[in-house]
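Design job #97: recover the sequence.
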């Protein structure tokens, strides 16, 4: 299951890419609702069907659509952070707090939900981010990580290091600052 908020973010992201017409087109092709309620839970298959329809429409792979979607979705998710994310000045602290802030809040709205878990650890040339989820949205998470660092002014390479069961480890290597501050 996936929270309606994630599907709302997906709608905003698809609309950013191709306008309301693209959202209408892909939800029709996917055979899913075009309207999602923030606090309701929906089958993960709705998310995947929409991403597949976007991939087909844009003639890209499903993994590319998820990665691009994740990167472009980050600003929409960040705006929903408590206090609008004003207390964060870098991606590392935000990622480190995902489970304590956002996913804890999700569990209060939906006690039976199973949000992903994250852990971020420094390494010589960047960070290792461990992501655990049974949903199989690894490329989407990869895009979200890239989007988070970009949002805070750092371009980076995000590569999958290892997947074991439902846990994927990413290598995040900042390449250069995009802006100062």
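Job complete. Output follows.
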């Amino acid at each position: 299951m996936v929270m309606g908020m994630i599907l709302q973010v997906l709608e905003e992201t698809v609309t950013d890419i191709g306008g309301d017409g693209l959202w209408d087109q892909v939800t029709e092709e996917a055979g899913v609702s075009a309207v999602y309620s923030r606090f309701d839970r929906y089958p993960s298959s709705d998310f995947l069907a929409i991403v597949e329809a976007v991939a087909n429409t844009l003639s890209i792979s499903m993994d590319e659509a998820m990665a691009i979607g994740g990167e472009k979705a980050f600003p929409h998710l960040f705006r929903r952070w408590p206090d609008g994310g004003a207390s964060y000045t870098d991606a590392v602290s935000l990622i480190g707090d995902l489970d304590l802030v956002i996913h804890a809040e999700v569990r209060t709205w939906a006690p039976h939900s199973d949000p992903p878990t994250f852990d971020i650890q420094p390494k010589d040339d960047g960070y290792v981010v461990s992501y655990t989820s049974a949903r199989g949205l690894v490329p989407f998470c990869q895009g979200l990580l890239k989007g988070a660092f970009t949002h805070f002014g750092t371009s980076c390479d995000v590569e999958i290091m290892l997947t074991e069961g439902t846990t994927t480890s990413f290598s995040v290597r900042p390449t250069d600052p995009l802006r100062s501050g």
